[in-house]
Design goal:
Layout lengths: L4 E12 L2 E12 L3 E5 L6 H7 L10 E9 L2 E2 L7 H6 L1 E4 L10 H11 L5 H14 L3 H4 L12 H13 L5 E5 L7 H14 L4 E5 L3 H7 L2 E6 L2 E7 H6 L4 H7 L5
Parallel strand pairs: 3-8, 3-9, 6-7, 7-8
Antiparallel strand pairs: 1-2, 1-4, 4-5, 9-10
Helix pairs in contact: 3-4, 3-6, 4-6, 6-7
The protein binds adenosine-5'-triphosphate (ATP).
């Protein structure tokens, strides 16, 4: 891999009780690229994604060993603060969850928490991030209307804008288009491709065509192990491992 890694996962093992969910994960996720995690249902894709943001911490009986280095800093080191880790990453969930407030306040929420008070600065941020997700023209006349009145696709873009407004370096997406219609899905996919100029993006998807459209790199996970990692065309069109071949041909799902 020629790209600089932004996230380096070393000897990561995740267990919940006796269940060994992730086994000896070693991976370098490149900077300013889209990397998709693919694999059959229940193989550990979401667990791997959440391990990058310490979103597994609160699960009862969880045991996490190994390290995840973000910008060279181990997010699991005892001295590392979770809030500091999370500030670097925006998470786009399966379904949009706008806060029960206006469109404007959704985007301004993070900057306000981080101390931005000036109305002029907040106005500028709201416009900038709504433009970044292609929503500005659609909502500029109703910024103070409820976010819940937007379509699901618009809500998902609003949630992305809310995430971007706290200036993360990394965007994590967990099946972020699964609740969307084809047009909204295309808008989000195009956004992902555009946003990789400025962000490192890691996605979980079970849609191979989507992985092919948006990703630079693919991680194929099977039963908690990384089977193959490499450039998208290589993994999807010319896989090295038999399991990957069977998965991309649809023999295992
Ligand atoms: N909180 C939990 N407690 C116990 N087991 C869990 C928990 N979360 C996930 N698992 C188990 O860990 C395994 C991996 O789950 P994970 O959600 O990471 O898979 P996935 O590949 O994302 O699946 P899908 O594509 O169906 O969303 C599954 O067997 C799941 O049942």
């Amino acid at each position: 891999m020629t790209q600089t890694p932004h996230i380096a996962v070393k000897d990561l093992n995740v267990r919940i009780g006796d269940h060994h969910l992730l086994k000896n994960i070693n991976i370098n996720i490149p900077d300013k690229c889209v990397t998709s995690i693919i694999g059959p249902s229940g193989c550990g894709k979401t667990t791997l994604l959440k391990s990058l943001n310490r979103l597994l911490d609160d699960i009862p009986n969880i045991n996490i060993s190994g390290s995840v280095l973000v910008d060279g800093e181990d997010i699991y080191a005892p001295q590392t603060e979770v809030t500091h880790v999370r500030k670097k990453m925006g998470l786009l969930a399966q379904r949009p969850f706008p806060l029960p407030m206006s469109i404007y306040d959704n985007v301004a929420y993070g900057p306000r928490i981080h101390g931005t008070r000036s109305k002029k600065d907040l106005n500028g941020l709201v416009e900038r991030y709504l433009k970044a997700v292609g929503l500005w023209e659609e909502v500029k006349h109703r910024l103070h209307g409820s976010a819940n009145a937007l379509s699901i696709g618009q809500q998902q873009r609003l949630c992305l804008a809310r995430g971007l407004a706290v200036e993360p370096e990394i965007i994590l997406g967990d099946e972020s288009t699964s609740a969307l219609d084809p047009i909204s899905t295309k808008i989000i996919e195009d956004l992902i491709i555009r946003l990789k100029e400025s962000y490192t993006i890691v996605l979980v998807t079970h849609i191979l065509r989507q992985a092919r459209r948006v990703s630079d790199y693919i991680i194929f996970v099977y039963m908690g192990e990384i089977i193959e990692f490499g450039p998208t065309e290589e993994v999807l069109l010319n896989p090295k491992k038999q399991l990957t071949k069977e998965y991309v041909k649809g023999f295992i799902s």
